[in-house]
Amino acid sequence: MKYLFVICFLFQIYTISANAQSYKYHTVQKGETVFSISQAYDIDEEDIYKYNPDAKNGIGVNEKLVIPVNVPRSTNSEAVSTQFREHRVERKETLYSLSKQYGVEIEDIKRFNKQLYSKELQVGELIRIPVPGAMASMQQPQPAGRQSEPKVQQISSTREHIVLPKETKFGIARKYGMTVKELEALNPKAGELRPGMMIRVGTNVLEDEPVIITDERFRFYEVQPRETLFNLSQRFGVSQDSLKRLNPALQDGLKFGMILKVPEKNEGDASSSDNATFNYDEAAGNKTDLKASINNYKPKEIVLMLPYHLNKIEEDSLGTYRKMILNERVVRISLDFYSGVLMAIDEAKSLGISTNLKVYDTKQNGAEVANIINTNNFTNVDAVIGPLLQSPTEVAASRLESMDVPVINPLSNRSMKGHENLFQSRPTDEIMQNAMLDYISRNAAGKNVIIVADGKSFQIKSQLGNMLPGARFVNPTDNFVSEARLTEVLTAGKNWVILESDNINIVSSATSALNRLARKHDITLLTTNKSNVYENDIISNNHLGKLKFHYPSVDKEYDTEATKDFINAYEKRFGIQPNQYAIRGYDLSLDVLLRLASAENLYESFERYPGYTEYYESKFHYLPNAGGGFVNDAIYILKLNEDLTISNANDF
């Protein structure tokens, strides 16, 4: 388990103190649950979760759990005063069906089977169901983000919590549904938190769900046969992306019988118009300016890992190295990115943030990254920016995971191996595509939608077809889209043409034909993937502008007037105007430095400031990645105008 070695170390420290508590290991057997194990050792489930935090996400066969020995059973806990019946989960059973069968609320079932906060019911799983009328009276934990904080005297039942490295009062309080004031009231002598410290906390361990709305705004809904995510988003007036954030299980797809958390909405109410629908992004927080929240002025320890191939200077002459820079794109990108980092450090310095920067040459090699980490001290490092490529980044994250040192990949859009400390700052292609699909689903009403897709794009074609059942299809013939075929499906109203292909002939013929047809028809061209084919000289930007071309993008066109001072300062320092990689280096590095200056560490900054941050070209909004770590999901939906200017069609 992730924290096993840390916890074992803490156990050694507290063997002398903490009431001379002793521990043993338990190897999980097939069919065992946290509840059955707690019964076998005559302890509370909370005692197991206390020393095995990951167990809240479920336990697996042969997994080792730390079990406290001789722990007195709590006499005032809710679990002790509640009667239960055990239930073996059968096929097609859901939390909703069980709640109806036994006459209890879904949240009551999840409260006593905490693994169900993060995973679905498993066939054959043994869970316990509280008996109605025999449950102990207990104030329900307030959802994260409730504006009225609970009073200190409301916390009557407490438990112990061992402070782990990088944990803060803010994060611990949020985890247990408390306020920082309540946490401090329970621990008046704690002062500054240190790893290994034992403190008192409440017993209400809340699910880690990024919902910042009171529960009165939500209800539960059971998915019916043949329903789609698009149908549900239209029915409840919420975007597909918002539904996925409210229900993390949707990342694995929509299934019949799933119980979804959806915004409360009265059917047929006039307030259900597009302008009044629930907006999760607004609820989670809008644009955040971290410059107004700077409070941590400790020097920031930053490591920059990029492939410079400096060994070439030793082997050859400096002139040869200069020639190599012109020929090696990765090295050029690294140097441009580095120049942006230096500009960000200067900007942070003007705000009172000092930075100690260490730069390492990864030589574009994972083994070199491992060697750098093994031969240098990373204990006090606040963040690692880089490496540039996927494989070396995964090596760095793996080596630094045990130290909780954040590793931020700057440019790769490939899905990476899950490490809890890995931050992918560039949204993946899948996130880009899903964002565009979400934009289309929310704005396609009243449009005549036409889908033009080649054979290679069959998956996205199928998704669009399921999402837009009334759409019409035009299939290219011999890598060509005919004007006559497009004319057959156009109408007098607004026409949306979704073009899915990276074939130059298909894109060229389609855009040329649509440009001619746009003289008599209202046509908007869209794509979920603006590939390099659109940069080809054969594709006319004038045609794309006339067609109001919409596409997803990581970066926006920076405003020359707004960035005038930055461009002048960059040109004065480096003798050239900044390119996209220099600006990316600036945006990403300044975001990291401001986050570190506005919180105790990078992890806490995301809890404290849930909104997105935005700079010259990029914006950042990190969410937990399904495989581990975090990924930036903030992108732009851009529109090319007829005068060839670019504007935001949908911000965030």
UniProtKB/TrEMBL annotation:
<dbReference type="InterPro" id="IPR018392">
    <property type="entry name" value="LysM"/>
</dbReference>
<dbReference type="InterPro" id="IPR028082">
    <property type="entry name" value="Peripla_BP_I"/>
</dbReference>
<dbReference type="Pfam" id="PF13458">
    <property type="entry name" value="Peripla_BP_6"/>
</dbReference>
<feature type="domain" description="LysM">
    <location>
        <begin position="219"/>
        <end position="262"/>
    </location>
</feature>
<dbReference type="InterPro" id="IPR036779">
    <property type="entry name" value="LysM_dom_sf"/>
</dbReference>
<keyword id="KW-0732">Signal</keyword>
<dbReference type="Pfam" id="PF01476">
    <property type="entry name" value="LysM"/>
</dbReference>
<feature type="signal peptide">
    <location>
        <begin position="1"/>
        <end position="20"/>
    </location>
</feature>
<comment type="similarity">
    <text>Belongs to the leucine-binding protein family.</text>
</comment>
<feature type="domain" description="LysM">
    <location>
        <begin position="85"/>
        <end position="129"/>
    </location>
</feature>
<protein>
    <submittedName>
        <fullName>Peptidoglycan-binding protein LysM</fullName>
    </submittedName>
</protein>
<feature type="domain" description="LysM">
    <location>
        <begin position="24"/>
        <end position="67"/>
    </location>
</feature>
<dbReference type="InterPro" id="IPR028081">
    <property type="entry name" value="Leu-bd"/>
</dbReference>
